[in-house]
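the four lines:
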Amino acid sequence: MRNPNRVFKDAIYEQFARIGKAVSSPKRLELLDLLCQWERTVEALAKETGLTVANASQHLQALRAARLVETEKVGVFVTYRVADQVVCEFFRSMRVLAESRLAEVEQIKRRFLEGREGMEPVDRDALIERIREGAVIILDVRPVEEYNAGHIPGAMSIPLKELERHLSELPHNQEIVAYCRGPYCVLAIQAVEMLRAKGFNAVRLEEGIQDLRAIGFPMAVGEEK
Amino acid sequence: MRNPNRVFKDAIYEQFARIGKAVSSPKRLELLDLLCQWERTVEALAKETGLTVANASQHLQALRAARLVETEKVGVFVTYRVADQVVCEFFRSMRVLAESRLAEVEQIKRRFLEGREGMEPVDRDALIERIREGAVIILDVRPVEEYNAGHIPGAMSIPLKELERHLSELPHNQEIVAYCRGPYCVLAIQAVEMLRAKGFNAVRLEEGIQDLRAIGFPMAVGEEK
DNA sequence: CAATTATTCAATAAATTAGTTTATTGGTTG
DNA sequence: CAACCAATAAACTAATTTATTGAATAATTG
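prediction for all of em together
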């Protein structure tokens, strides 16, 4: 096999496959998905994904070897972050492809949501329109750092963990739209369940920040007002 | 690990990883790249990629298991084709990500091209502008079926294998722009080398059909005139 | 400077994947 | 229906990947 064309092609596709290998493990994809929201330390990532620290570290190094993420050492902590916003766009295109080609994704989601009150799919476009108009209270239930990294303009930031303590700040006479990281993040689901149980008029927006950005929705960064 | 949220997330990311696994092998990527140009039989794919038929068949079945490609049996032959145009768009976004994140891709390309006459990078935008204006002869050197599946409007179809026989149809007093499947396809390179050796004024357009489509370039299908 | 903490490294076993070889299937043709 | 062909399946070896464990490193703290 001395053919230089073959050597060239093999070398090129081997490089492309580095990206493919990096995103061929469920756990690495979950890590990448989290990092697309905001940077984190190894320990935080391990905790959120249910991995041991050593195992998370290995997966993160695999992502770094493919140059999808970068690290910064501050004191004893190593912070991982995505190397470029295009990485998040690529991850999203992969997610959208999986949704469109693999019927199992929809099945798994339906099975998870069935039996939960108020998780009926809403008319997204109408909901997004009401958000645009400011006709609803928008609630971002992700951790504060993720909110600061990018959120829907005008959204309130009340992380799920603190929601119970801040219920008094929310109105009963207005519709509340909760959102989080996206369709496969459970924070907004739990928030809506809690709000409904307390008598609020709450619905969930499935779309996350990456999805909204992709459809040209404006984003705000930092704290509001 | 009875936490239903974890079970849900594991199931979802496992589905995403099916796509990742499918595109984690260099050979499968090469197969997918070819199929994005036009459908082919197993044997044709095996020959073009330098795989044994049995091995190619296995890889193709892996792509099919991820629903990225589909098959149709006609007589004794099985034809593989991409399941949807979004698969090609995904493949392209992966390729672009690899080009932007992995410096090795550019290195490998430079090393392959160095020492070849007339392969100096051209000013692409200016070249594309001249193509749009019809100021040059455009030459599609891919196999005819690929040309018919989609080509630059006004381009001549002369597959590389038949180029030598059709040199008399080409003018000496006008610039000829040859293109093929894209930056990592060698057909246009070989065409330009041959044309230059015969005294033609030829240059290569690196971009392939998928790239041009992505920048909104109009496409023609079927035979010209 | 010893102890602590976050992370990485190294070693291992288990599981998965890739490529090869040798059937087998299913359709076509003489 | 026997011979032939494209494609797949099955069996096997070699190589790679994964999770786990325990040790090593490197920065910080008492």
